[in-house]
Amino acid sequence: GAGVSQTPSNKVTEKGKYVELRCDPISGHTALYWYRQSLGQGPEFLIYFQGTGAADDSGLPNDRFFAVRPEGSVSTLKIQRTERGDSAVYLCASSLTGGDYEQYFGPGTRLTVT
Amino acid sequence: KQEVTQIPAALSVPEGENLVLNCSFTDSAIYNLQWFRQDPGKGLTSLLLIQSSQREQTSGRLNASLDKSSGRSTLYIAASQPGDSATYLCAVDTDSWGKLQFGAGTQVVVTP
Fold first, then answer.
1. Which of B47, B25, B50 is nearest to B38 (CA)?
2. Each residue's pLDDT tens digit, A69-82
């Protein structure tokens, strides 16, 4: 079956602009996670959804970052007033219900802020 | 605060040799530990998930052990192949619902 997909695969934007990153999880997975990975580092947790609700957004670095999952499937990560420090690979993962279930990762969106 | 460390940062071995990758964590109150593989420019692929009540998990040539009390996990890859070249990451779940905290990874090169 289809895995987790993310679009776009690459995004180049100018400092100060607004961007949206999309994640399509595996069908039937209720848990969805966003992570951010900088070069040479492991992924860093941003936000977790269980169904439509953000169960934990403690990893969002500041109020410029926001994520939604309105119908409990597709999720969008939104970044306002982008800064050069936001440049990273943004990874999305889903799992059946969270907890002790494996997380399946998408290929990521590489965001470059110039 | 939980910290996850992977040593060494990089490792090169000849084909056929067994690989031993180490992961340590500072807080033993974990729900599970997962090992992932990451190929350049790609997302992560889950290899093994060890629940906190388990001591090890096996899948084919891969075996992962978990010692919660000492805060350690080891991933063994038997009879390495050039296709095993990748970065291997371990991650711990300390919140029971899958909020993973990752190490920085070990970059492995298996030479033919």
1. B47
2. 999 999 999 999 99
